[in-house]
Design a protein that fits this description.
This protein is of the alpha/beta class and about 375 residues long. It contains ten helices and 14 strands. A seven-stranded mixed β-sheet has the order 2-3-1-4-7-6-5. Strands 10-9-8-11-12-14-13 form a seven-stranded mixed β-sheet, covered by helices on one side. The chain is elongated and about 70 Å long.
């Protein structure tokens, strides 16, 4: 199959991280916009994007963009797409999700119906059949309409790429794996790094740090929808996985140390690190942050609790003070702390060397970076 136009959504604030990852896997003609990186690549690049990118949320094939101010324009634009390149006679092609902003077409259910009908009409004419059983592989269709320009996608990943396969359970306030991986990248974790998280929760920062340090592809333990598509050679995925396995490097001195005051969280971190296959590189204790001892030369990465009610917020602010005293960030012991608290630096006791705006779910946060 020839070159495809691919698109990976990501967390706002992590576009530069994803841009670097796409370059590394061989993506070409890269364009970066808010929360998204688009690029050209063949089936091999598509497989690598699913397997290897640590901060992408999904990998989409961008099929076509066109003006659509009316349902007729939307129908004709979708019908003109060469659906037969991807969708087989028995394949399922549901219209999963879509949105419309600043456009004349506002009804999402109506747009979904039009997109489906247009794809069906195209395939009926190509395959000479009037009914689609849709019992084969699934090729979900997505669409966006922004300022009256419709863009149609095929979704290749299945579950979001943050689903690595190692975190079946999580504590009450987990950080998404893709966001954690982006912070790990910004913290410059390397093969010989020592990483600490004194409030490790379900162990996400510890595991994502190990993946980064050991060059483990984040998607190595899971399946992707496009692996089942007949339009792609199965050897593409087989070869991409074999190469990803060959690239794992466990020779570095990397080690991660975590602790949590909640024994259930400490146990969960240990369990998740075993599922992730990196438990030999991670040590976790059940301990209060007040008894935390920072190893020399360690990078601290954490997501401290912040609270929503007044009492919880006060407790969180006291915890920030303790963190500041315990961590004493410096060039030798850098710290990367994500928090939505606007006055975090005041309670922590030191102004960050750099701040970066990030979103943890729908919560606007700052990544406070201490490295000088």
């Amino acid at each position: 199959m020839e070159k495809l136009r691919l698109c990976c959504p990501c967390h706002f604030g992590l576009e530069s991280v994803l841009n670097f990852e796409i370059k590394k896997i061989g993506g070409e003609n890269i364009t970066v916009t808010d929360g998204k990186v688009s690029f050209d690549g063949d089936a091999e690049i598509l497989a690598k994007a699913n397997l290897r990118t640590s901060v992408a949320e999904r990998v989409l094939i961008e099929l076509k963009s066109f003006k659509a101010e009316t349902f007729e324009e939307l129908f004709q634009g979708v019908k003109s797409i060469e659906w037969e390149r991807f969708v087989g006679k028995n394949d399922a092609f549901p219209v999963k999700t879509g949105y419309s902003l600043h456009s004349k077409l506002t009804s999402i259910p109506d747009c979904q119906s039009i997109v489906k009908k247009a794809a069906v009409e195209r395939l009926k004419s190509k395959y000479g059949i009037s009914w689609f059983e849709e019992t084969g592989a699934t090729l979900p269709i997505q669409f966006s309409i922004f300022k009256d320009v419709a863009t149609i996608y095929l979704e290749t990943s299945g579950e979001g790429l943050h689903k690595r396969g190692y975190r079946r359970k999580s504590n009450d306030a987990p950080i998404k794996e893709t966001l954690a991986a982006g912070i790990v990248d910004l913290a410059r974790v390397r093969r010989d790094s020592i990483v600490c998280d004194p409030m490790c929760g379900s162990g996400t920062f510890l595991i994502e740090s190990a993946y980064k340090a050991l060059s483990i592809s984040p998607g190595i333990r899971r399946h992707f929808l496009a692996e089942d598509w007949s339009c792609f050679d199965k050897n593409v995925w087989k070869n991409a996985r074999e190469q990803a396995l060959a690239d794992i490097d466990k020779q570095g001195k990397f080690h991660a140390y975590g602790s949590d005051i909640d024994p259930a969280c400490a146990d969960l971190s240990i369990m998740n690190s075993k599922k992730a296959g990196v438990n030999s590189k991670i040590s976790v204790d059940n301990a209060d942050v007040r008894s935390f001892k920072l190893p020399k030369g360690a990078i601290t990465i954490c997501n401290p609790p912040y609270g929503e009610r007044l009492l919880e917020i006060k407790q969180a602010e006291e915890l920030y003070k303790v963190l500041g005293q315990k961590l004493s960030p410096s060039k030798d012991n850098p710290c990367y702390i994500i928090s939505p608290h606007e006055d975090f630096e005041k309670f922590f006791g030191k102004k960050a060397d750099k701040r970066r705006k990030l979103y943890n779910g729908m919560i606007k946060c700052q990544l406070f970076m201490y490295y000088l």
